[in-house]
Design a protein that fits this description.
Blueprint: E1 10-19, E2 25-33, E3 41-48, H1 57-69, E4 73-78, H2 95-110, E5 114-123, H3 125-135, E6 141-147, E7 160-161, E8 164-165, H4 168-180, H5 186-189, H6 193-203, H7 207-212, H8 219-222, E9 237-242, H9 248-257, E10 262-267, H10 285-298, E11 310-315, E12 327-332, E13 340-348, E14 351-354, E15 364-367, H11 394-397, E16 401-404, E17 412-416, E18 419-426, E19 432-440, E20 446-455, E21 474-479, E22 483-487, E23 492-498, E24 514-517, E25 522-528, E26 551-555, E27 558-566, E28 571-579, E29 582-585, E30 590-603, E31 611-622, E32 625-637, E33 641-652, E34 655-667
Parallel strand pairs: 3-4, 3-5, 5-6, 6-9, 9-10, 10-11
Antiparallel strand pairs: 1-2, 2-4, 7-8, 11-12, 13-14, 13-25, 15-24, 16-23, 17-22, 17-25, 18-21, 18-24, 18-25, 19-20, 19-23, 26-29, 27-28, 28-30, 29-30, 30-31, 31-32, 32-33, 33-34
Length: 671
């Protein structure tokens, strides 16, 4: 909801230029509390490539307008080469971006309306570079709020998971392919807008090619991964994520490894700010941010240091066919928590047997999963909240080895990361294993709780993978994503193991048969034995934000997620529609929109038919000005190579003014 009871009135600077040392000018929008020029205030910087003038204009006004109303200067800067900023954006988290960020912080702190203290704030990209800039220890920086971000660019980002290639790598590369193709606004940059646009179209490049050149954890990924040296981050950090987001693990690692003041918050949300996102209840997140900024940037004691280190949403019974979630908040004063104790199960004869019980004789079990296992897994990182969440896991379990507990005699709380030890062999030199834990209701409905995947060639680490010796047993541990789940009495816990998980992850080069030796297989659940009075936690309130600028909805958003199995051709496809609303910003008479189509397919269970295709179309219009871009990326593979084909077309009105194609082949590196 909007909050009209602001403490201070707000003055908006629609655009100002921040000039870098090399002469490149970056575009900034600033929300100032009334009177800040006479009585300087701390500033909050969000530094991202998602276009302050249009795509993020409404959201930015709601957030930074709220911060300004509470006595902070809100500053939104377009990264070099994005939005209205000059230059070319050639990749994510490059040294140039971080160097520019340091200059921006110095510029903000030197402004007459700034007290000299700056906080870094952002979701996803802005959450990443907030941590990365903090690790460089700029003196102007007072605190960080990092939402939906990662400390490890290889092991826990949109590109790879467990050494497996995520198809979100293709999806995300295509998103940035579309963003990088967009023109600046002629109202802001003037007549040179077309030259800037053409420079971007020619120079931004095909990022997925760069990412597929680095299929193991090398220097490319170590750069800007703050896990390389957690001690470099010395300012207070609030780390936030959601269970439907792809980045919830980061919160737990930061709480474990950072030394300074820190707070972790994980709720029932996807890849959204917690006052905006579902599928679970939203909160007064911006109010929580103001508490943090007041304490660390203004020196007002808001008792944030008395808060529990970690506060998370404990999932309760859920229906995987509905987007709603139930549960409640729990907290741990410290992380790791002494309230978390391992609960062990042995794998035997389709059962999960408590560690203290006799599991019976060891078995040898095999599985060669169909490619359909994963079609109902949802997205690695949920953006849409309704269409891209995992469905009933019974749709997947027929192609997996499954192991169930007996119905539980009492409730069991799980908080943290489960681990599965496997004694496993494969009949091919490259193989992956996917592991899922589900909550089985008394009616057998299966809700996925958490999952993990591992490229078995990465069993000893991601820096130096080694091919498997077919038929040789290996002992490996698969770590699943962190989670908080209450399993109710009468429910069962299911462990499912498969040899593929398409299209969430790209499969091995050819079909693989895995063999498990159950004597060496264990599941360890992080059982929570509450030692903290969760009922005493203060409410996180109802969402507040600044008023939304005047706008007109020209066409609504469209979200679809459809699995199609053509029995005549035996082609299977997952079709995704992810169209944003088409909106007119009334104050600047600008209309813009984005249409996205994704398709992941295969035919006849043949691995050489795997195909991912993503198309983005973006439009901008004002009066006689009409600019449009269409990007298309196709990823396929053979046993030995990945193949990328891409096109980029740009139009003014009906006239195509730019066109470029790519046809790239890269060798598979044990992926």
């Amino acid at each position: 909801m909007n909050d009209a009871s602001f403490e201070r009135r707000v003055h908006l600077i629609e655009n100002t230029w921040i000039t870098m040392a090399d002469g490149c000018r970056l575009a900034a929008k600033i929300w100032l509390p009334e009177g800040a020029e006479e009585n300087p205030v701390p500033a909050v910087l969000e530094y991202i490539p998602y276009r302050k003038r249009d795509h993020k204009a409404l959201r930015d006004a709601e957030i930074h307008g709220f911060f300004a109303s509470q006595g902070f200067a809100g500053v939104r800067v377009d990264i070099r080469g994005s939005g209205d900023s000059e230059g070319i954006l050639r990749g994510e988290y490059l040294q140039q971006e971080l160097d520019d960020g340091l200059e921006i912080l110095r510029w903000i702190a030197a402004q007459p309306w700034c007290s000299g203290k700056v906080g870094l704030f952002g979701l996803s990209w802005g959450g990443f570079n907030g941590l990365q800039l903090a690790a460089l220890q700029p003196p102007e920086l007072g605190a960080v709020i990092s939402v939906c971000s990662s400390d490890d660019r290889y092991a826990d980002d949109v590109h790879y998971m467990g050494g497996c290639l995520l198809t979100d790598n293709l999806s995300w590369a295509s998103t940035m392919f579309g963003f990088n193709s967009c023109p600046p606004d002629p109202q802001v940059v003037g007549e040179r807008w077309r030259d800037m646009w053409l420079e971007r179209l020619e120079g931004s490049g095909l990022w997925i090619h760069n990412w597929l050149q680095h299929q193991r954890r090398d220097a490319f990924w170590r750069h800007a991964s703050v896990c390389e040296n957690y001690d470099a981050i010395q300012v207070p950090v609030m780390a936030v994520s959601g269970w439907a987001d792809g980045y919830s693990n980061t919160v737990f690692r930061l709480m474990r490894h950072l030394k300074g003041p820190r707070r972790g918050l994980v709720g029932p949300w996807g890849h959204k700010y917690p006052h905006m996102g579902g599928p679970g209840p939203t909160i007064d997140f911006l109010g929580e941010c103001v508490r943090w900024w007041d304490h660390w940037l203004k020196g007002i004691d808001r008792q944030v240091e008395q808060d529990p280190m970690l506060r998370v949403w404990m999932h309760d019974r859920r229906n995987p066919l509905l987007p709603e979630t139930t549960g409640g908040w729990v907290a741990e004063p410290h992380w790791p928590s002494p309230a978390i104790r391992p609960r062990e199960y042995q794998l035997s004869n389709g059962r999960l047997v408590p560690g203290e019980d006799d599991a019976g004789e060891s078995e040898t079990l095999t599985i060669q999963s169909p490619l359909s296992v994963g079609l109902f897994a949802g997205k690695w990182c949920s953006y849409a909240e309704i269409t891209d969440l995992p469905s009933d896991q019974r749709l997947e379990d027929g192609g997996a080895l499954v192991f169930d507990t007996q119905p539980l005699h009492e409730d069991l709380q799980m908080l943290g990361a489960a681990e599965v030890d496997l004694e496993i062999s494969a009949d091919k030199p490259v193989a992956m294993v996917a592991v899922r834990i589900s909550d089985l209701a008394p009616d057998d409905r299966a809700t996925r709780v958490t999952f993990g995947i591992l490229n078995l060639t990465h069993r000893d680490g991601h820096e130096d993978p080694q091919a498997l010796e077919p038929g040789r047993p290996y002992r490996v541990t698969v770590r699943l994503n962190e989670v908080a789940q209450r399993f109710h009495a009468g429910h069962r816990i299911r462990l499912a193991i498969s040899s593929s998980y398409w299209p969430l992850a790209w499969p091995a080069p050819e079909p693989v048969r895995l063999t498990l030796h159950t004597a060496g297989c264990r599941l360890r659940l992080p059982q929570r034995c509450p030692e903290f009075d969760d009922a005493s936690l203060p409410s996180l309130g109802q969402p507040r934000q600044a008023p939304t600028p005047p706008n007109t909805l020209m066409a609504p958003a469209q979200r679809e997620w459809q699995v199609v199995h053509n029995l005549a051709s035996n082609q299977v496809a997952l079709d995704v529609v992810n169209n944003d609303p088409r909106i007119r910003l009334d104050d600047i008479n600008l209309t813009f929109g984005r249409q996205v189509r994704e398709r992941y397919s295969y035919s006849n269970e043949r691995y050489d038919t795997l195909r991912g295709e993503v198309t983005h179309e973006r439009q901008f219009a004002r009066g006689d000005w009409d600019a449009r871009t269409v990007t298309r990326t196709v990823l396929t593979s053979t046993r030995t190579h990945f193949i990328i084909r891409a096109t980029l077309d740009a139009y003014e009105g009906d006239v195509r003014v730019f066109s470029k194609t790519w046809d790239e082949t890269l060798p598979r590196d044990l992926v």
